[in-house]
Amino acid sequence: MKKLSYVLMITLAAYAMQGCNSAPKDAKESADSLNKVKDTSATSPDTMKTVAGDAKFATSAAAGGMAEIELSKLAQQKTADAQIKKFAAMMVKDHSAAGESLMAIAKKENITLPVAMDADHQKKYDDMSKLTGTDFDKAYVNAMVDDHKGALGLMQDEAKNGKDPALVAFAGKTAPVVQLHLGAVNKIHDSMK
Asked: Lowest CB count within 10 Å: 65, 66, 70, 125, which one?
């Protein structure tokens, strides 16, 4: 009888221990599921991607605009072609205004914009500064065609797919100006053939 009581007590103790061990597990699972609910209410990877996409647009637009300003200032100094000088002056004026607007939005949205040309644009600038005459004119016009095609795509994409209302509005307002620039530089390009 003592043996039976002893076995019964051990069995009950085992069940009791198992029951005790499962309670913390259930509590832990409940806590984990609550944390998951809390985590999904925070910033999700999709939201971060959206914010990052808008920030990437802003930095790309700023870098491109800055390069177009600097290349156009160089063109104003180096070219003898009146239509290129006029186009370059328009670039400096329009891209400076767009840059100021973008800077104001970036400040409100806490986006850090570049303060100098990126390496690719700096190399293009350095290479072009060594050119003269029609070689410079052709290089400048080709650079403006390429840059404006890229900028137009960038603006249209942000206007259509961006999530930040201020940047979407900026892109929507700027895209027609970029389209105008592209048309003007294409005319210059065609006249040089």
From this structure: 125
